[in-house]
Amino acid sequence: MVKIQWYPGHMEKARREMTERLKSVDMLIELRDARIPEASVNPMLKQMAQGKPRLIVLSKIDMADPVQTKKWVEYLSQGENACLALDLMRDSQCGKKIIREAIKLMEEKRQKQIARGIRPRAVRAMACGIPNVGKSTMINRINGKNSLKAADKPGVTRSLTWLHADSNLDLLDTPGVLWPKFDDEKTGSLLAALGSINDDILDHKMVAMDAIHYIQDLYPNLLEEIYDSGKVNPNGMLKAIAKKRNLLKADSELDVKRAAELFLTELRHGKLGRLTLERVDEEPKNLSE
């Protein structure tokens, strides 16, 4: 399994600023990739959040396995957290759904303020998540306009910005932040496969082979049918992809490097079907993480 670490300087700066700004927010709206709901949570959030309520939003559900997404929503909705699974690109009402759920999560606190004769101000929420999970798109949906630049690559947002999203909700947008070291190699591998790590530092062949292994384990025969490969190992699958897509070097040898890049592109854009690469029942998890 490929070992990956990526923690550029702007992420450490953002982490410090987020920790300081958390003192002024009521809750967190945490965006995760529905295809990897466990790998796409930043473990530093537990320490940074200081016990504040969290609304977890699973994005990219149009590319995730709907059966597994339902299981993850049920699992992540336990305890004090709430969870929504949303298609940020196609659901025109997703912004209103997030606002409604965020206010609902803070309703008890707001009612206590009213009981003491205090007029509740707008809920202050910090929007956070790892790179390239669609956070800028989510902010634009909540805000009702394209106020932030969104791109299909990590590291677009680099500063913290307050937005008045609704009369009852103010949002603090933050950069996508990873953590200094992936204790679990699989986490780094999954993040790389789905585009949350800078492609320039990756060995695409190794990342693709890891992803092929996961898919072969969770969705037997899927890749074999797509690429007409027969039963092969991940390296053999890359050769089958090169053959299927007619990817050849100048000497007419199969170009497995280009095959790996093409495979990752097709995986990231949902061309292989709706896949979820983590299971709720894979191993015991801590809900607070």
From TrEMBL:
GO terms for molecular function: GTP binding; GTPase activity. The gene is ylqF. This is Ribosome biogenesis GTPase A. Belongs to the TRAFAC class YlqF/YawG GTPase family. MTG1 subfamily. Its main location: cytoplasm. It comes from the Bacteria. Required for a late step of 50S ribosomal subunit assembly. Has GTPase activity. Pfam families: MMR_HSR1. It comes from Solobacterium moorei F0204. CDD domains: YlqF. The keyword Signal does not apply. Keywords: Cytoplasm, GTP-binding, Nucleotide-binding. It is found in: Cytoplasm. Residues 126-211 form the G domain. InterPro entries: GTP-bd (IPR006073), GTP-bd_ortho_bundle_sf (IPR023179), GTP-bd_ribosome_bgen (IPR019991), GTPase_MTG1 (IPR016478), P-loop_NTPase (IPR027417). GTP binds at residues 132-137, 176. One of its GO terms (cellular component) is cytoplasm. One of its GO terms (biological process) is translation.
